[in-house]
Amino acid sequence: MAGRLLARGMIAGLLAACLAFLFARVFGEPQVNLSIAFETARDAAAGMAAEPEIVSRSVQASFGLFTAAALYGAAYGGIFAIVFALAYGRVGRISPRALALLLAGAGFLTFVLIPDLKYPPNPPAVGQEGTIGLRTATYFEMIVLSLCVMGLSILVGRRLTQRFGQWNGTLCGVGLFVVLTALVQGGLPDINEVPADFPAIVLWRFREAAIGMQIVLWGALGLIFGPLAAAVLTPSVAGRHRAG
Amino acid sequence: MSYGFSSPVPASAAMPDAIPLRALLPWAVFGLVLSMVLLYFVGAEQGATALVSGHAVHEFVHDGRHLLGFPCH
């Protein structure tokens, strides 16, 4: 059962990644190209030689982007399926499709939106080479802490719901989530490496595209995985009857 | 409109059976390790750390790494 859900989660992630790739190709790539043009012009003005092209731009923007999206989609599809398998039957009377959509929303919030509010996606030309270690470490720390905050808020919220009722318990859980998120984000170091003359509109459009790509990915993941999981979990739908 | 013999109450109305933790655990470990490896190659290989020398992996997934929100360069 769990193995089949895991496989279906990764397949749903791959399919969702195809849609996310199309979105990124249309809305993200123009901003990446503008950023690279800015970088090239800046380097030329400083008298630096152009960076050698190891992988051509057209490959980066097609096969490279697709591969990255596919691996990312399959990976989060797998994690998503494991969380789904753990939650199903333990979070109340909810259909597989509704649970999948709910968890996709929670996944987007936990793995994307909360980390990105602290460390937003940056286009090429933004970010100094010397700080890549610090930036990578803080970014992954932010994701882990975001996951901890979400998990803790859900556990506390559920406990309080049993004692003080649905409305009050949920409000307390959400309140705890907001406070802990603010503390975590305030505690991690700020990083701002945007060049002073980098066009603000390109930065904004790039980040819109990056977040939009994730909304497409997680939305599609939830919507595609739901029916796939329902077929495994409710055998009567598929014409099979099993005890237990 | 005709109804079959199945119960008119949708399946979601009853608390569904949970998957036992013991059955879930090995798949969870396998899935998490696999996912971490995939995310590492998309998000961090040949950036902060490198298992494969050179820049080919980094350059190939370059646009995806930027657009998916990972730190790059």
From TrEMBL, chain A:
Claim: Transmembrane is one of the keywords in the record: yes
Residue runs in coiled coils: none
A Pfam family that the UniProt record links to this protein: CbtA
UniProt keyword annotation of Cell wall biogenesis/degradation present: no
Transmembrane annotation, as ranges: 63-86, 98-117, 137-157, 169-189, 209-233
Keywords: Membrane, Transmembrane, Transmembrane helix
Name listed for the protein in its UniProt record: CbtA family protein
Taxonomic source organism: Gluconacetobacter azotocaptans
TrEMBL record, chain B:
Transmembrane segments: 24-43
InterPro entries: CbtB_put
Any matching Pfam family: CbtB
Keywords: Membrane, Transmembrane, Transmembrane helix
Domain of life of the organism encoding this protein: Bacteria
Protein name: CbtB-domain containing protein
